[in-house]
TrEMBL record:
Residues 10-304 form the Enoyl reductase (ER) domain. CDD domains: MDR_like_2 (cd05289). This is NADP-dependent oxidoreductase. It comes from the Bacteria. It comes from Streptomyces goshikiensis.
Amino acid sequence: MKAITYSAYGTSDSLQLVDVAPPKVGPGEVLVRVKAAGVNPVDWKIAAGYIDPIMEVRFPVIPGWDVSGVVEAIGPDTFDYAVGDEVFGYLRKDWVQSGTYAELVSAPVRTLARKPRELTFEQAAGIPLAGLTAYQSLTRVGLKAGESVLIHSAAGGTGSLGVQIAVALGLRVIGTAGAHNHDYLRSLGAEPVLYGEGFADRVRALAPEGVDAALDFYGDDVIATLQSLVKERHRVASIADYNAAAQGAHQLWVRPDTADLTFLGELADAGKLTVNVEHALPLAEAAKAWELSASGRTRGKIVLTV
């Protein structure tokens, strides 16, 4: 089968489209014929060696954790899906090696859910990591209907899904973004504020009494500022600041979860969650996809079509 691989830590220049053996399918796994693979910043950060201190990486690596596709075969003692089922998932395994930038991938059923009927394969591939990250961040800080949340970097892949999920949960959403993305955030149901210097004052103008919780999807050393904007300083979570826990905030690393994925799929089928796929590139153009991702200027998601 065709797959994108790299054989040592490096940049997008290290990526190659090569022929590799199809994956084995063990107990509790299914073989998925990939229709689309989501591209996330963590993909190129792993290739740069940033995750080496905490996760084992075995070369050569097929990158990618997000997938949507069709079940092609079933492993031993696996009864969760049938051949022909359409699925999507966040295929993070115990070590980094056999990812989703390929024609076929073996997937533990604990990482999958049934693909939303109302989304294309490309849209579905943009949900798992970013959608789970957003949803699990919202639940980690204990938000409930009627409360307010500040989402820092609300127009990106994770932020735009987070806004929609929060709105669907009955939350008031304030989101930071560049001025060119403010109409986009309004269309998703958020109240936009300009990020950058002075954004805390702009948030206070909208919520003088403070917000109930805040989510950091960007980093840039904003934990203390977000804590000054929430009513209870512990109700801040970050996916981008590795010192968040030391500052009294929640430091979140997303987990595969079939129930959470199913919930996100149900939101999509109910018309409450959609994915803005800004770039859908062929598998052979994975390097270009990484360059677009690293630029930090993409609104919504980047996916590879297979």
